[in-house]
Design brief:
- The complex is a heterodimer.
- Helices cover about 70% and strands about 0% of the residues of chain A.
- A two-stranded antiparallel sheet of chain A has the order 1-2.
- In chain A, about 25% of the residues are buried.
- Chain B is mostly helical.
- Chain B has three domains: about 170 residues, Periplasmic binding protein-like II (D-Maltodextrin-Binding Protein, domain 2); about 230 residues, D-Maltodextrin-Binding Protein, domain 2 (3-Layer(aba) Sandwich); about 60 residues, no CATH class.
- In chain B, the strands form six sheets. Chain B has a three-stranded antiparallel sheet with strand order 3-13-6, sandwiched between helices.
- In chain B, helix 18 packs across helix 19.
- Chain B is globular, with a radius of gyration of 27 Å.
- Classes of the chains: A mainly alpha, B mainly alpha.
- The interface between A and B is large, with 38 and 40 residues.
């Protein structure tokens, strides 16, 4: 009891943040009912009539919904995998660098693209991958190939999306891994060295188990974005030629919504995405507990 | 322990109460925002005293709120703004109407439209509103469905000035019909300058001269020009700018309008078919011929191989950097992008023309008769005041009001360079073919047939621009842009008899709302694939079938049913 009384000021410090959270994140959740209504502006959200699952039905009645769902999941899963592996690999490699100033320098520079908006980056990448852009020009001069329309190719487009986003984000995720890596006691490395382990063995038996928890945590957290394939990015990159492979749930609803401000459908879609993400987190959490002995909640 | 627990519970509960109270006030939109002054107003307010005079000052001061659209950098004189200027003061003093701007939005990037959509969805529109732009018809329908605006039939009948009524009668009341639903006039429409939709081919006369070419008369000429200019090295690997970020056809710059119109086809529009019913332009058989031609052009490299990735800015880069000799724009293209081209090379000699189709006619698309209207919120009293405002503005636009001319267009006028819509009511053309008329009026003054003093103020001002340009060519690039937009751009269609196809339907239906995205996607993808040669031209027939199946047939039937009503 003595402890609890003493720590009450921590709770009070937390209070403003909690209030903020409730007002801006939890209370708006109540507005999710819009997904089950047909919005009549005069009656407002609360007075509009209930239409049950009508909005969800409209979404699933879209003719190429299976194609769109496939694109969404495909791109999202590729992104999750890439953004788990690459930052990890990069952090491991960077960790080996001895010169501290170089390490910090690289870390900062690599971290920067994370802050750029997709509007800017998409413009840059569009120029790079254009028919008369750098890639085509270099390839043409060195290998003598014909220019390829990367941004118009259904084959290349999803991978281009995954690649550019990984490039943008890996610096940020790597920092988390780097932090985890510093937590591993150097004594363990010394012990391994004495026992005759080379760098590879050290990596396998000390580093990886050491950051296992961080990896599991990040993997679990990233699972909830399996239906979130990156609306901003794709919106800035796509064009009708790549609808087949690049059109995701969000961009399609956006195009539908342009015609008629269909807030209800966007809300319904948001609910679906959240529900799926939530279920996946629960599953991942169970699996994490079972295999890595790690309990997040 | 218990004491501590109670404390926490107490604090939490009081917080919850505060929050709930806050929430409570917010969640009664409909109840509290209805203006106190109104009662369910099905009946129009009976005003007998002012019936005759459509310009009379209001008996008492009436106040209205509205929203304004501002250009990026409005240049108001010191100390003034769009909410505080001589024009609003005049209206207040002379008409007893007090206008307050609840908000303003930029005229860029559809900001005004987006704001309107939000306001409509949250039921917070001001007392009266000007609606315009490509989604105006849908917004109007939304407002009507949500029962947010009032019936203006009687207001128009009793209070529209003879001038205003005359303007609509001149055009067969087309605009009025387009905003009449169930026999009720739900908005006051302005007329759109339909001619602006024409696709004007702008070409470099100096380049053509060097190559010994004539001005283009039809599609094949255009192709030839691009080819020959390249062959002779006057341009290097030039292409005809094209893009696909908007529709492939929309009366703006670097679209395929020039091609489709020359074949008398109107994709993307609902038009009157041969049997008098409304049909969709993109599925007509003639479109197949036009697409085949486009396929040919793409193969020959006349349009860029990756045009599907281009947007407006990339397309006009070619123009401003003077790398090409011809492109498709509109009559006002001197303002953008040709002005940039002139800044880079002042010797460029741009001229404009319209293309003929195979049968010698000048076919072009047209806009809907009305692109802008003014609506009045339901429950607002004294709607006739707004109508009077429109009357006065109409006269101002016709340059009949000296006080307005003195403030806006005369020499050294206070608001000459302010930009934006100074008057809080909707602007509009006076005739559907206003541009040609204005062009002829200007040329009459320029050629001395009519004296400057006898022409209306706007014509006189524009004629002055033209004359100044003749005297001192390129002395001021803004002047050049204005002058040439008339002497070349407007001349292109004023000098010939243009046959414009107007949309037969310009709104939305239930099925159209649901299916528009799918149908548009299908259309855009098919057209692009055909033009780029990825599929054969026969894919067009499959497209027509699919379009009908995916809802197009239903929409067509719905539209025709609406028209019959």
């Amino acid at each position: 009891m003595h402890n609890k009384l003493k720590s009450i000021h921590y709770h009070i410090m937390l209070l403003p943040a909690m209030i903020f959270l409730v007002i801006f994140t939890i209370k708006p959740l109540l507005g999710s009912v819009l997904a089950f209504k047909k919005l009549n502006p005069v009656k407002g959200i609360w007075g509009s009539e209930w239409v049950g699952l009508y909005n969800f039905k409209v979404i699933f009645d879209i003719p190429n919904i299976d194609r769109i769902l496939y694109n969404t999941v495909f791109i999202a899963v590729m992104k999750i995998i890439a953004q788990l592996i690459i930052p990890l690999a990069f952090a491991l490699i960077l960790n080996e660098v001895r010169k501290l100033w170089f390490k910090r320098f690289v870390q900062t520079v690599v971290y920067l693209p994370y802050f750029l908006s997709w509007v800017i980056l998409a413009g840059i990448f569009r120029d790079i991958f254009a028919m008369d852009g750098v890639i085509n020009k270099i390839s043409g001069t060195i290998f003598g190939t014909e220019p390829v329309m990367f941004l118009g190719s259904n084959l290349v487009f999803p991978f281009l999306m995954v690649g550019t986003e990984t490039w943008k984000n890996f610096g940020f995720n790597a920092i988390i891994y780097l932090a985890a890596l510093t937590n591993i006691s150097p004594n363990l490395y010394e012990a391994c060295d004495i026992d005759g382990g080379n760098r590879w063995k050290q990596l396998l038996h000390i580093t990886m188990p050491g950051i296992k928890i961080t990896i599991v945590l990040l993997a679990t957290l990233s699972l909830q974005s399996v239906l979130n394939a990156g609306f901003e990015q794709i919106l800035n990159f796509y064009n009708p030629l790549v609808y087949e492979s690049g059109d995701i749930l969000d961009t399609y609803i956006y195009r539908m919504g342009l015609q008629n401000n269909q807030f209800e459908m966007a809300t319904a879609l948001g609910l679906v995405k959240s529900a799926v993400g939530f279920i996946l987190i629960l599953i991942a959490q169970k699996l994490a507990g079972k295999f890595a002995g790690y309990r997040i909640f | 322990m218990k004491k501590y627990f109670c404390k926490v519970v107490a604090i939490t509960m009081s917080l919850a109460l505060i929050l709930a109270a806050g929430c409570g006030i917010k969640d009664e939109p409909a109840a509290t925002t209805t203006p106190v002054t109104s009662l369910a107003s099905e009946a129009q307010p009976t005003v007998t005293a002012e019936k005759a005079d459509t310009y009379a000052k209001m008996a008492e001061m009436v106040a209205f709120t509205t929203g304004g659209m501002l250009p990026a950098e409005p240049k108001y004189p010191e100390g003034e703004s769009n909410e505080n200027n001589d024009i609003l003061t005049w209206v207040k003093d002379n008409m007893n109407i007090d206008i307050k701007y609840e908000w303003t939005a930029s005229d860029q990037n559809n900001a005004y439209d987006s704001k309107l959509n939000l306001l409509i969805a949250s039921n917070e529109i001001p007392d009266f509103l000007s609606i315009g732009g490509p989604n105006a018809a849908q917004m109007l329908k939304k407002l009507i469905d949500a029962d947010m605006i009032q019936d203006l039939t009687k207001v128009y009948e009793d209070y529209a000035s003879p001038t205003f009524k005359g303007m609509h009668e001149n055009s067969g009341n087309v605009a009025l019909k387009s905003v009449t639903f169930d026999g009720k006039l739900m908005a006051i429409p302005s007329l759109s300058d339909v001619e602006t939709a024409a696709a004007v081919m702008w070409y470099r006369q100096d380049m053509l001269d060097k190559a010994g070419l004539q001005a283009p008369k039809n599609v094949d000429d255009v192709i030839n020009i691009v080819k020959v200019l390249n062959e002779k090295g006057i341009t290097k690997n030039a292409v005809l700018p094209a893009r696909a970020d908007m529709e492939l056809f929309s009366g703006d710059t670097a679209t395929f309008d020039w091609l489709f119109s020359a074949y008398n086809t109107y994709p993307g529009m609902w038009i009157e078919g041969k049997d008098g019913s409304v049909v969709y332009g993109s599925i007509q058989p003639e479109v197949k011929t036009a697409l085949a031609k486009a396929q040919e052009i793409y193969k020959a490299g006349i349009i860029p191989s990756d045009f599907a990735l281009w947007d407006g800015n990339k397309a006009v880069e070619l123009v401003s950097s003077n790398k090409i000799g011809i492109f498709q724009g509109a009559w006002w293209s001197t303002a953008w992008p040709i002005q940039d081209s002139m800044k880079n090379d002042a010797t460029a000699n741009w001229k404009a023309t319209l293309l003929q189709s195979a049968d010698g006619n000048y076919y072009q698309r047209g806009y809907a008769a009305s692109k802008g209207f003014l609506v009045i919120k339901k429950g607002v009293e004294h709607p006739e005041a707004i109508m009077k405002l429109i009357n006065v503005y109409e006269d101002c636009a016709l340059k009949k009001n000296e006080w307005y001319n003195a403030l806006t267009t005369n020499e050294n006028a206070k608001y000459k360079n302010t930009g934006g819509t100074l008057f809080p009511a909707l602007p509009g053309a006076k005739y559907l073919d206003e541009i040609s008329r204005r062009y002829n009026a200007i040329m009459d003054v320029v050629n001395g047939k009519v004296k400057k003093e006898d022409a209306d103020a706007e014509t006189a001002a524009l004629a002055a621009n033209v004359l100044l340009e003749k005297e001192k060519p390129m002395a001021d690039i803004a002047n050049w842009a204005t002058a040439v937009s008339w002497t070349e751009g407007a001349a292109a269609f004023a000098k010939v008899k243009m046959i414009q196809k107007m949309p037969a339907f310009d709104g939305t239906t239930d099925t159209l709302t649901k299916s528009k995205a799918i149908l548009t996607d299908l259309e855009k993808q098919t057209f692009l694939k055909i033009i780029m040669g990825k599929v054969s031209i026969d894919e067009f027939d499959k497209f027509v079938e699919q379009w009908k199946k995916l809802g197009g047939e239903t929409v067509t039937q719905e539209i025709n049913a609406l028209k019959k009503k």
